[in-house]
Automatic annotation (TrEMBL), chains A, B:
Signal peptide: none
Protein name: Polyprenyl synthetase family protein
Organism: Rhodococcus chondri
Requisite cofactors: Mg(2+)
Metabolic or biological pathway, per its Swiss-Prot or TrEMBL entry: Isoprenoid biosynthesis
Length: 357, 357
């Protein structure tokens, strides 16, 4: 029998955390349990547990011992990142008016349907959104509880505090800039990169690694190397995502082909194409501006794809991914991370930047 | 020159906290600062600072020394409750589709107006709600940061953790039960009391007192007395609110007369009236059920007021307030709280339960 993989261990820790909340939930009573159960299903249903994995690997790479006595506490602290993520996703789905997530109804759609089914008063959509706002809040505050109750000693918790705090302030900033950039149609590469930096790179890789490092008591040099590695791989990861959002195989990505073009997402890919078109090909620039965020036919999507290639934007993005990855590996190689940590981080980095889904 | 009052000290602590967040907000850059400034204005603009006051008084009553070296840290920890409250209000205003708060536009209305003014893409309402969701989240996570960075020693923080955690899980539960009760038209006194217990009493008085007590290292007996006092005064406070929501003078309360009847709020007052009417006066019960939550004329509001009095519900609520207050004072009097703590708590309790606005 093989040892359980990290995602399974994270799920076990999350499951245990939900059990630990039962007394307070039951003391409130009424139908609170039903709402909490919906949150629990959302959290346990999946995802790749990317953030806990990077945090854990950061800890191991900084000398943490997976067989040591504090490994359980560290696992719980790392797993708390999944509750931050649950809160972010539930609220994001309201903001983006998304109807499905991981093949299931989003929380606000789920509760609107329950309202409709029960024939309750008021608008089902309003009820669904209200419950999703509250459950997202609950996930956010429970993330803190899970970290605080993880069993980490007071000194480790004190070191984690500022990292945890910065991460959450940054991701909310990244989300804000994302929606502000979308409504104001900010076309700059700089604005798109800023969103990638804070909404994705810092939140998904840099800060989780940083978190793992401070738990292990890493020195400033290793923390700095981790952060440079995490930022660059995080940015490369998002650039890969941008390419997949336009060129990805729907059978592999699970998203409709050209989804990002139809939704009007302000990606670096698109910004680079516009930048070149504005200089060299004003007609192409006009086509791009008129097409983005509209209900495109498959033929129009295909036409835009060719345009992004012809303008050199795809090549530029691939080049950026390569440069970022190279620079990240240099930072990692030159660091004092353990060999096993380096090996894991390299593998995770390649998985994140070379993926097809 | 007199010493600053507690609300002013709380505002000073909050102002200082916002200054401390500037580096991370500016590192994210873009327009994040604008959004954060809107949150800061919301937080600093007011309210009575009820929760920090109860927490502070709980600490003083448990032997905390307002002139001691840890008073600054305690003040900051107590003030963090205002950020929890800001998050709750901003999200509540979305849920209730409220347009004003403390005489100003609610956050979602404010940002919808900015969107409209700038002629941005998409629906202004959707943008306003999205920003308000994110700023409510930011207030919630900053509440944690402010507590963690308050300067309380690790042992005090460890004692505060479970109280802080329970308080937030309870208030979100109370909010959930409130909206679930409203859509399902739950008519029971029990359901309305449960909402009052968790949405108001625990969150506004019981847990803040508890928080202050554990910071001071109070023993179980004093904590128990505080909690009983806080629960009862909290319930009485909400019952007074129910009466003011129907009978309050609009010039004093600042809310339209009969507001709770028009909005369909499921109060204990209304539930008691229905309970009696169902037994003794089926016609009155029908009138109540048909009227609640509809766009009533002033004459209809006046008719319902008379009905609530005739059915004895007003008398019952006044009786409950008196009983709760009496029981709360007994718990307080029999406790080991300091005399100055008792005096302050008695005054606060009377202000909360005998008020006219």
């Amino acid at each position: 029998m093989s040892a359980p993989l990290l995602p399974e261990l994270v799920e076990g820790a999350l499951r245990q955390f939900f059990v630990s909340r039962a007394p307070v939930v039951d003391s409130v009573g009424g139908g609170y349990r039903d709402a909490v159960t919906a949150l629990e299903s959302f959290v346990l249903r999946g995802g790749k547990r990317v953030r806990p994995s990077f945090a854990w690997t950061g800890w191991v790479g900084a000398g943490g011992d997976p067989k040591g006595t504090d490994a359980g506490a560290v696992l719980r602290a790392c797993s708390a990142l999944e509750l931050v993520q649950a809160g972010a996703l539930i609220h994001d789905d309201i903001i983006d008016a998304s109807t499905t997530r991981r093949g299931f109804e989003t929380v606000h759609i789920d509760f609107a349907r329950r309202h409709r089914g029960a024939g309750w008063h008021g608008r089902p959509e309003q009820f669904g959104e209200a419950v999703a706002i509250l459950l997202g809040d609950l996930a956010l505050v429970w993330a803190d509880d899970m970290l605080r109750d993880s069993g980490l000693d007071a000194e480790s918790l004190a070191r984690v505090g500022p990292v945890w705090s910065a991460m959450r302030t940054e991701v909310l900033g990244g989300q804000y800039l994302d929606i502000a950039g979308e409504v104001s149609a900010d076309e700059s590469v700089e604005a798109a990169t800023r969103v990638n930096r804070y909404k994705t790179a810092a939140y998904t890789i840099e800060r989780p690694l940083h978190l793992g490092a401070v738990i292990a008591g890493a020195d400033d040099a290793l923390i700095d190397a981790y952060r440079r590695f995490g930022t660059d791989i995080g940015l490369a990861f998002q650039l890969r995502d941008d390419l997949l959002g336009v060129f990805g195989d729907p059978h592999v990505t699970g998203k409709p082909s050209g989804d990002d073009l139809r939704s009007g997402k302000r990606t670096v890919l698109f910004a680079l194409a516009l930048e070149t078109a504005d200089v060299n090909d004003p007609v192409a620039a006009e086509v791009l501006r008129e097409a983005i965020g509209t209900d495109l036919t498959d033929e129009q999507v295909e036409r835009l794809r060719m345009l992004l290639i012809e303008l050199g934007a795809v090549e530029q993005v691939e080049q950026r991914i390569a440069t970022l990855t190279e620079r990240a590996f240099e930072a990692l190689d030159g660091s004092t991370a353990t060999e096993v940590g380096k090996a894991h981080l390299r593998a995770s980095a390649l998985a994140a930047t070379l993926r097809t889904a």
